[in-house]
Each structure stands twice: as C-alpha cells, then as structure tokens.
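Write out this protein's structure.
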Amino acid sequence: MPARRRALEREAATSATEAIAAVEATASRGTAPTGVRHVAIIMDGNHRWANARHLPGAAGHRAGARNVRAIAEACADAGVECLTLFAFGTENWQRPRREVRLLMDLMRSVLENDIDELNHQEVQLRVIGERSRFDGDLQERMADAEALTRDNKKMRLNIAANFGGRWDITEAARALARDARSGVLEPESIDESVFTSYLSLGDIAQPDLCVRTGGDHRISNFLLWDLAYTELYFTDAFWPDFDRDCLQAAFAWFEERQRRFGRRA
C-alpha cells in the first residue's frame, strides 16, 4: 500500500508539473482579451524600416512578407477567430512599376511557401478584393490556397489584395441593385444588415480591433463600412518590427477601452 501511495503521489506531482508548464506556455504566447474576435491590421512601414537600416526598399517588403505568417500564428495562438491583413490597396497600383512587381512576387511567395504551415495550424485563408487585375498564375495560387484551407476552423485569415473600402461598398451597391432589379429582394427590405451581407466580409463579425503600424493615423480606404465601431490602435512600430510583444501591447490597450456603441457607460 505505501508503495502504491507513493506511486500515486509521484503521478499527481507529475500531472501538476505538466499543468503548470502548460499554463506558463499559454501565458508566454499571450491571449486575446475578451471581446477581440476579429483583428484587422494595416501593415505599414516596410520601406521606412529599410531606410532606417540603409537597405533598399525591397528588403523592407521582404521582411514585411516574412512577418505575415508570424503574426497570423500569434493571433491564432491567442485565440483570435479572424485576422484581416491589408496587403495591397487599390491605390497601390500607382507605385513605381518595379515595386509593384516585387509586391506581386512576394504575394506569390507567401502563397507558395507559407500556405502549408498555415494549413497545418488549421488556419483558413481567404483573399478579398478585385482579383481580375492580377496575373493568371497569381489568381490560381489564391484559389488553390483557399481550396486547401477551406475546412480549417482554428482561425480565418483574410488577405485584402487590390482591395479598397470604397470599391467594396460600390460593389455591394451594384450587387444589391442587380438583385432588386431582378426581383430577388424588394428595395424596402434593404437595411444595414442586408447591405453588410453583400460586402466582402459580410459573412463574419466586424473587426473589434484595427491596428495600423508605421506611425500614421488614418485608415487609408481600408474597411470603411466595417470599421464603424472598431477600436483603432496606432503604433510607431514598422510592420517588420511588429511582433508578439507588440500584439500583446495592442491587446492590453484594447482591454482599457470602454466600448459603448453609442450608449451611456
């Protein structure tokens, strides 16, 4: 009996040690605060990150591309249900042609090199935006990545590419007009919830927290409709430097906010 009791005590001690280690591991990864289901990020500052290090701008974009998977995994570990990244805006076509080509190549690289790991992490990928302007091979990679990860449930990752908030609203209005003209719905039935359902992210909860890196304080034609009651967090950290600690700082800031949605506290 004493030997049996000692064995049980050792087993209990081992279980307690493992439980403590699990708690510590979870704490080190960080957890999203209650109420943060959907995080949106405007990834800015790649070029200035490179300039500060006397590197070509391309080095900054490459460093920024490498950070996409790291932050996606950090959000998934923290329990975030949805992450939306502003990768390429409709206005970004106005940048130098060489820079645009590089950004397209980096998008290809992320879809080719990171998608297996994201799939392993049970992340579902979806690309939002007008795809027709992209080269055919890039459109195919987008479709393949979406098909591969379609059934994943841990977190949804939306990549906004050739996306603009005004474009999104305009497309929704066109689709609504077509459906009203064809008799699918009555104009009188159109309210905010119906309109929202026609937007690119109309099937998920709107962002709770939007982070912009790089020091600028604007949303740059991102999710104009969706961000109506989103908490906006601005940081001077350039996107390649935005790591798990920066993400936790944004979460800590969010916890201090009082979200009233027009009501009294």
